[in-house]
Prior knowledge:
The protein has helices spanning 3-17, 20-27, 33-52, 60-73, 75-85, 90-95, 98-109, 116-133, 142-165, 173-196, 204-231, 234-238, 243-254, 262-277, 297-314. By secondary structure, it is mainly α.
Amino acid sequence: MNRAGTIALTALAPISWGSTYAVTTEFLPPDRPLFTGLMRALPAGLALLAIARTLPRGVWWGKAAVLGALNIGAFFPLLFLSAYRLPGGMAAVFGSLGPLWVAGLAVLLLSEKPTVRTLLTGIAAALGVSLVVLRATAALDTTGVLAALASSASMAAGIVLTKRWGRPEGVGPLVMTGWQLTAGGLLIAPVAFLVEGAPPALDGRAVAGYLYMALVNTAVAYWLWFRGIGRLTATSVTFLGPLSPLTAAVIGWAALGEALTPVQLVGMAIAFGATLLGQIKSSSSRAERPFRLFSSPEQNDRKHSMDLMNDAVRR
């Protein structure tokens, strides 16, 4: 599949996540964010493990646990906490800072230098999302702000480490998704029961909502997301993130009867433009070149050394 097709499939993940708010408010029990995070992650992870029948080996037990914590186990609770503590979609604004987090972490972990275009595009994406979701009455809450920043940083670190570590030879993105969802779900489970108590009673509507969240919104969406991380640059993937709040705004307008103001429409245009600009590949920047998925840092170093030797011979 060509790069455009890979970008399009990866974009389906944040588009799917944009439906989370509508499904949560219309189908699921109220005020149970941790239980919802648990029901999204653990059943989906166990189902994928049952299909793949492959467990981590050696150091990958630890790596899968770290990635599962960053991408799922820590991200979900922090995201829900920030959403409950910050009004007017402000959590989405902090979440839109993901490209800037990734640019900074990529310098440390991937030796990729961010371009001026990347930084300006990241700022534009955050500005566009803020115009879409912020309300004039929005107020800051210290706990909510810290949780929102931590959730955004957690997801960014998960993206960058997934690029750095790749995956074991012979292991596909479906298996990696199962490992991370299971690890993240197991991390959420004790927190959910300690904070929220026993699971709520579920009617048919709630069961349907949780099935959608676990299968489409999580299992399929995260499989596409991790598949995209393996094939695209970290920067390209993270610039798809603003599609989530944009989708939520469109669903709110189309399905929930929410109005879209001219300012929101301008913000949507800016954020979508930043998303598209973030996919443009620069031939002169190493940061825009995707890492080889199955290469470890040591293999990349050996390849670089061989390239230097070959250049010397040719000279």
